[in-house]
Design goal:
CATH class of the largest domain: Alpha Beta
Strand content: 15-25%
Largest sheet: 8 strands, mixed
Radius of gyration: 23 Å
EC number: 4.1.2.10
Signal peptide: 1-26
Number of domains: 2
Structural class: alpha/beta
Enzyme class: lyase
Shape: globular
Family: Belongs to the GMC oxidoreductase family.
Low-confidence stretches: 1-25
Mean pLDDT: 94
Catalytic activity: (R)-mandelonitrile = benzaldehyde + hydrogen cyanide
CATH superfamily of the largest domain: FAD/NAD(P)-binding domain
Number of strands: 25
Number of helices: 11
């Protein structure tokens, strides 16, 4: 009775409080300090038994894995495994002013931001910390676009979607204190025709808007890890520094089933965690980690696995395929005066592209992946404003391949084939042209070093925009020359190819994938992290309901 009453109240709140501006009323309330009460669930993997049983095992304590494990723990025992450490081991991740430091920290195999360079030659990052990439990113929080819900292939109940978003937002989504630079760029977007002004909203709406942030008004980060604070104290266990190496399978007359996982601790000892009864193994290791783990476990293209001398457990031709990364193209302004540092707080949304911005103070060490080349030293000796564009999709895709057939710690090779599809290049040209329109506005005029007309007069770090705004070829060259990552890569375990509409791995019982690897062409909205956290909560609730039936 209590559960049904609560559900009815939530439904009424949605219809009467959130319809005009969904999500706005569900912002988190700042507290005096960060809540580390989740640490009571956390154990170093070295302290865990060599074999245990749980109802559910979640591989990957990241953006989707944390809310998923927390939700399942309401009724069942859950083991959440994370290869990285706790956030407090890396204080920079907990502060807005430490964000760029995450990009500068040399990768020693333990740092929260794992570096990799795609086969396209573009520098990139993966989260390697409890809380995942939500602990190292720029903090922008905005819900998915309508097209995502319609075309993702995931079976979604929109009432549960909205309730799941609100559950997430009550913990991690904060009203931003909009900085001067963010306000200026928003004014420039409106002046350049990215209208209307939608004010503060979490919804994906055409025009310019302010959205939520993971940073509270004191600049402290509240990532997906904080969802663990809501876990059941007797049911949730979180293993850190736990590297999952293989999925354990059982083959019977009734079919192939996942039975557990093998993981190693920081001392190199091997552990087994098994599921009991109607439990499941859920992969939430991200668009790189989940397909890699399936391949290493013998689930993938038969001929490919055989060529790598990996025993084929289940032939699945699409594992590791359709890897996509949203290109980031940009200009970086070096103003004639100091600009305060800011994370992304505003966005311009059109049907073809999105515009975002952040600003920073001088840095003398290379910020890996901020600029595309991993080898050319790039430092900035003054404050800067970075205006960047992203377009939905992309249509272009590549694939992921193993570098090692047995060692999960050896990162796989991945190629995204940026701009292989002409439509992607066309979207980029339109988006970069709009940056040119912004540079012509009165709002950005004070940021010019010289009083020159049009897009000229700015002191820029990196290549300038083409002066001839009608020259498509010059803009295409600019797009190719400045392509960097938006850190929103996805694919490798697509819905309809590898998993079904309920994210179950097709042909294998008791195995699901809940992370960005299941996304097809469309990555959700301007930033996927809100939707990833929502999906973690959503599928946790759905799985509980399935068991209760």
């Amino acid at each position: 009775m209590e559960k049904s009453t609560t559900a009815a109240i939530l439904l009424l709140l949605y219809f009467f409080g959130f319809c005009s501006q969904p999500g706005v009323s569900s912002f988190a309330n700042p507290s005096d300090d960060l809540d580390f009460s989740y640490l009571k669930f956390v154990r170093n993997a070295t302290d865990l038994p060599l074999q245990e049983e749980y109802d559910y095992i979640v591989v990957g304590g990241g953006t989707a894995g944390c809310p998923l494990a927390t939700t399942l723990s309401a009724n069942y025992s859950v083991l959440l495994l994370e290869r990285g450490n706790i956030p407090s081991a890396y204080p920079n991740v907990l502060r807005a002013n430490g964000t760029l430091a995450n990009f500068m920290q040399e990768d020693d195999g333990k740092t929260p931001a794992q570096r990799f360079t795609s086969e396209d030659g573009v520098a990139n990052l993966r989260g390697r910390i409890l809380g995942g990439s939500s602990m190292i990113n720029i903090g922008f929080y905005s819900r998915a676009n309508g097209e995502f819900y319609q075309t993702s292939g995931i079976k979604l109940d929109m009432n549960l979607v909205n309730n799941s978003y609100e559950w997430v937002e009550n913990t991690v989504a904060f009203r931003p204190n909009v900085t001067h630079w963010q306000s200026v760029v928003k004014d420039a977007m409106l002046e350049a025709g990215v209208r209307p002004d939608n004010g503060l909203t979490l919804d994906h709406i055409l025009g310019s808007k302010v959205s939520a942030t993971l940073f509270d008004d004191r600049g402290k980060r509240h990532g997906a890890v904080e969802h663990l604070n809501k876990g059941h104290p007797k049911n949730l266990r979180v293993a850190i520094l736990a590297t999952v190496e293989r999925i354990i399978f059982s083959s019977k007359a009734s079919g192939l089933s996942a039975k557990g996982i093998i993981y190693s601790d920081s001392n190199g000892r091997s552990h087994r965690a098994l599921i009991r009864g109607k439990g499941e193994v859920i992969l939430s290791a991200g668009a790189i980690g989940s397909p890699q783990l399936l391949l290493l476990s013998g689930v993938g293209p038969k001929s490919y696995l055989s060529s790598r001398k990996i025993p084929v457990v289940h032939p699945q031709p699409y594992v590791g395929q359709f890897m996509r990364d949203n290109p980031r193209n940009y200009i970086t302004i070096l103003p004639p005066f100091q600009v305060e540092a800011s994370t992304v707080q505003v966005v311009g949304i059109t049907s073809d592209y999105y515009i975002e911005t952040f600003s920073g103070l001088p840095f003398s060490r290379q910020a890996f992946s901020l600029f595309p080349s991993p080898t050319i030293p790039m430092t900035i000796n003054s404050s800067f404003g970075h205006i960047m564009v992203k377009f939905p999709g992309p249509l272009s895709y590549g694939s992921l391949e193993l570098q090692s057939s047995y060692d999960v710690k050896v990162a796989p090779n991945v190629k995204f084939n940026y701009f292989a599809q002409e439509a992607d290049l066309s979207h980029c040209v339109s988006a970069v042209r709009k940056i040119g329109d912004l540079l012509k506005t009165n709002s950005l005029k004070p940021y010019k070093a010289q009083d020159l007309p049009g897009v000229e007069g700015f002191n820029l770090f990196g290549p300038p925009l083409p002066v001839n705004q009608s020259d498509d070829a010059s803009f295409e060259t600019f797009c190719r020359d400045t392509v960097a990552t938006f850190w929103h890569y996805h694919g490798g375990c697509l819905v309809g190819k590898v998993v079904d509409e309920d994210l179950r791995v097709m042909g294998i019982k008791a195995l699901r994938v809940v992370d960005g690897s299941v996304f097809n062409v469309i990555s959700p909205g301007t930033n996927p992290q809100a939707t990833l956290m929502m999906l973690g909560r959503y599928f946790g609730v759905q799985m509980l309901e399935e068991r209760s039936e």
